[in-house]
Amino acid sequence: MEKENNKQQVVESVSISAEAEAENEPLIEDEMERSKVGIMRALCDRQDPSTKEVDDLMIRRFLRARDMDIEKASALFLKYLAWKKTVLPKGHIPESEIANDLSHHKVCMQGHDKKGRPILVIVGNRHNPSKGNPEEFKR
């Protein structure tokens, strides 16, 4: 009986410590992510000053996509920024370029989120690929 109680106490203490470790892991991961985001931001800021306009969540997304490898994530992120500058030279798509899609009411604006970014609702069943210009669809 005494051995069973000791076993139960050991099992309980092991499970409690395992739970504590599991709770601490995300904190360590978050600290690691925060430090890597800071390092990546500093690295990218030196190469392209426009990275200051991007928030930490975007940088974290690229880090996670490259398994937290700062060099690979930075290279991918800088390529993304270069691509974005060529596709969206004004920083946005003018309404005149997507007038056809707007006329079909495929997209509705539903206000702004807490950070002031627009919230869009996209109605996919209103898209007919046989109608319209493929180049316009890419935009």
Automatic annotation (TrEMBL):
InterPro entries: CRAL-TRIO_dom_sf, CRAL/TRIO_N_dom, CRAL/TRIO_N_dom_sf. Transmembrane segments: none annotated. Residues 55-80 form the CRAL/TRIO N-terminal domain. Residues 20-31 have a biased composition (Acidic residues). Residues 10-19 have a biased composition (Low complexity). It comes from the Eukaryota. Residues 1-31 are annotated as: Disordered. This is CRAL/TRIO N-terminal domain-containing protein.
